[in-house]
Amino acid sequence: GLAARERSSRWCADPRPDEHEGSIVQQESRQDAGRISGNLRYPMSKEAASRIVFLGSGAFGIPTLESLHEQGSIRLVVTQPDRPAGRGRESTPTPIAQRAEQLGLQVRRTSDVNSPEDIRHVRSVEPDAMVIVAFGQKLGDELLENVFSINLHASLLPRWRGAAPINWSIIAQDPDVGVSVISIASRMDAG
Q: Does 6 score more than 70 pLDDT?
């Protein structure tokens, strides 16, 4: 077969490496807007924006949330419930909930995203894709069914699967660090 760089793609690598870093563009039809492949750098037009459900809790996900919001793609943000924090043990929203509310996005807090009520709510926005970043819950088959789902994980898998991958990379003094982008399977961290 052809080498990856020789194959045609509906997505285009940006020849200007510093400009538009980290965003994507679709070159053809809207129906492919939820598919991601290759080195993607152009901004996606508002007309081509997918209907995305963003699932996340930790601060690591904020840059991704902001980028997708700028593209007009996010229809719903799902996050963990508020938890007691600090000396006063005051109920505190997740960093994702705080930022999503500042951006004026619809936020749903849940301790079980796989509950029938939460699945119905997610399905009600008719998502083209789900983007998961540091969410902290296993996503069930029913939730994942017929929706392209992609996860941004804060380590080079499989070395630091699970919680706190950045912390473990620092503790282990890993010489090589990075992120992994994987499509989601029904088992956590199975990709």
A: no
Q: How many CB atoms lie within 10 A of CB 137?
A: 19
Question: What token pair was written down for 117?
Answer: 């009520």
- CA atoms of 72 and 28, how far apart (whole Å): 18
103-156 pLDDT per residue, tens: 999 999 999 999 999 999 999 999 999 999 999 899 999 999 989 999 998 888
pTM: 0.70
- Give the containing element (helix H, strand E) for 121: helix 116-124
Q: Is 70 left (phi over 0), alpha (psi -120 to 50) or beta?
A: alpha
As a whole number of angstroms, the distance between CA 94 and CA 81 comes to 7
pLDDT at 25 over 70: no
Bridge-partner residues for 122, per DSSP?
Answer: none
What would the two tokens of residue 53 be?
A: 């459900």
**How many whole angstroms separate alpha carbon 149 and alpha carbon 52?**
10
147, HSE (Cβ side, Cα atoms, 13 Å): 28
Report helix, strand or coil for 62.
helix
